[in-house]
Amino acid sequence: MHDITVVEAYDVSEFAEWMDEFLLRNGISEKVSLENFELILEDYMLRGFHFYVLDLIESSSEQKSVEPILYEFDTGFLYYPLLITSPIGGDGKIILFLLTQSVIESGYDPLTKAQYTLSTYPYTTEPIQFELSNEELSLIDFSIGKLFDKAWLTALTYEGQLGKLTEDLMMTLLTGDLNVDGRVDIHDLWITAQAFSSYPGHPRWNSKADINNNGVVNIIDILAIVRNFGKTL
């Protein structure tokens, strides 16, 4: 079903030229335009993201889905690309199921925790976030069971205009590591200081600085960084 090619690229225009040649070699005459993606790809490359996956899929009007692909790679943080979706435009819905060693409290804006409604009175809603044992994880997939003794499952969702996705999901499990570089240091304190006393809608608001996710950046968030200052992954 899939014809996957992994490309290492450092220049957007050269990347586009290569893709045109690549498609011609595979019998596809349509030209590729990266005009709407140029700034985003340049940003990715400046941040050190140089490997891209091209997947050629044959589909028909009757076919509604394709066989999924499993990507596996080493990383020091939890990462999912959202920004690359924004130039597509229109509305869309994204659902992510995350498995992490510790509970996720913040750092996932603009996504929100998916909710479910209790089946008994008073029928309140609760976030889809709970701990799974190794046995339960192995029932999902044996390879997942080999990764965790136990893990937290969190469902995150977004529904709305894709153009409003202005950054990727990048989360560290090290509390206080706001810039997701694998350490808690002065840079994280500076990010919090810039957003201090801000709240959603405030011009200096930064959801990553709201470590305890209470809707305001204050001394509690500063103390959370101080407690882990100097720690690394």
Describe the structure.
- Strand 6 and strand 7 (125-127) form a beta hairpin.
- The protein has six helices and ten strands, in the order βααβββββββααββαα.
- It is 23% helix and 24% strand.
- The mean pLDDT is 87.
- It folds into three domains: 2-57, no CATH class; 74-171, no CATH class; 174-233, Dockerin domain (Type 1 dockerin domain), CATH 1.10.1330.
- The two termini are 38 Å apart.
- The strands form four sheets. Strands 4, 5, 8 and 9 form a four-stranded antiparallel beta sheet that branches. A two-stranded antiparallel sheet has the order 1-2. A two-stranded antiparallel ribbon has the order 3-10.
- The chain has helices at 12-25, 38-46, 134-140, 142-145, 186-194, 219-228; strands at 2-8, 51-57, 78-80, 91-100, 112-113, 115-117, 125-127, 129-133, 150-161, 169-171.
- It is α+β, with helices and mostly antiparallel strands and 233 residues long.
Entry summary:
This protein has 233 residues and is of the alpha+beta class. The protein contains six helices and ten strands, in the order E-H-H-E-E-E-E-E-E-E-H-H-E-E-H-H. Helix 5 (186-194) runs antiparallel to helix 6 (219-228).
